[in-house]
Write a structure and sequence with these properties.
The protein is mainly α and 199 residues long. It has helices spanning 4-24, 31-38, 42-48, 52-74, 81-103, 119-142, 151-161, 167-172, 175-191. The protein contains 9 helices and no strands.
C-alpha cells in the first residue's frame, strides 16, 4: 500500500499528464514534460510509472470508474428497468459531453479513441459499461419490461448503436442536435419504429 506522500505524488503526476495529454496529445507529450509539469524529476516519476502508457491507462480507467460510480449514485434501485436504462444512457452521454466541453475544440488526432495504444483501454472501459447495462437488461427481462431472445446479442447491438457517441462527434456537432439524436436513439430503443396495431 502506498504511503500518503506517494499517493499525493502519484496524483500530481496524473494531473500533470492529464493536462498535457489534452493539450498536446499522447505522442507529443514526453515523460520529461510530465515530470517537469508535476514538479518532480524524471527519475522520481519512474518510481511510480514505468512509462507514459501506464499513466494514461490509469487516468482513463479511473475516469471511467468515477463516471460509473456517479451514475450508480443517481439511479434509484427501486426504479423500473426502462427508467434505469434511460437514466444510465443519459448520464453516460452527459459525462462524455462534459468531457468534450472540458477539452474544447483543440483536440489532437491521437486522442484516446483514435490512438493505437489507447484501443485496449477503450475496450476495458466498454466492458465496464457493458456489465452495468447487462444488469439493467436482465432486470428488465425479469420485470417483463424488455423482450429479448438473446440477451448477449441485444447487449452487443446496443453497445454498437451507441458507438457513434464520441468526443470528436460532440465537439464538432451542434450540441442541441447531439442531444436530440441521443434522445431519439433512446426512444427508438425503448419503443421501436413500427406502429403497434394492438394498442
Amino acid at each position: 500500500m502506498l504511503s500518503k506522500e506517494d499517493s499525493i505524488r502519484k496524483q500530481l503526476i496524473k494531473e500533470a499528464a492529464y493536462r498535457l495529454f489534452n493539450q498536446f496529445g499522447f505522442h507529443k507529450t514526453s515523460l520529461e514534460d510530465i515530470a517537469n509539469n508535476a514538479g518532480i524529476s524524471k527519475q522520481s516519476l519512474y518510481y511510480y510509472y514505468p512509462n507514459k502508457e501506464a499513466i494514461f491507462n490509469e487516468i482513463v480507467l479511473e475516469t471511467a470508474q468515477k463516471i460509473l460510480n456517479d451514475i450508480d449514485q443517481k439511479i434509484d434501485t427501486n426504479l423500473p428497468a426502462d427508467e434505469k436504462f434511460l437514466l444510465f444512457t443519459q448520464s453516460i452521454y452527459e459525462s462524455i459531453k462534459n468531457h468534450a466541453r472540458e477539452i474544447g475544440p483543440v483536440v489532437t488526432p491521437d486522442f484516446i479513441e483514435y490512438s493505437p495504444h489507447g484501443r485496449p483501454i477503450v475496450d476495458k472501459i466498454r466492458y465496464l459499461f457493458k456489465d452495468k447495462l447487462r444488469a439493467i437488461l436482465i432486470e428488465g427481462k425479469k420485470q417483463d419490461i424488455f423482450s429479448m431472445e438473446d440477451e448477449e446479442m441485444t447487449l452487443n447491438a446496443l453497445m454498437e448503436m451507441a458507438n457513434f457517441i464520441r468526443i470528436r462527434w460532440l465537439i464538432f456537432q451542434d450540441e442541441k442536435l447531439c442531444d436530440q439524436i441521443v434522445k431519439e436513439m433512446n426512444r427508438i430503443v425503448l419503443f421501436g419504429l413500427k406502429v403497434r396495431k394492438d394498442q
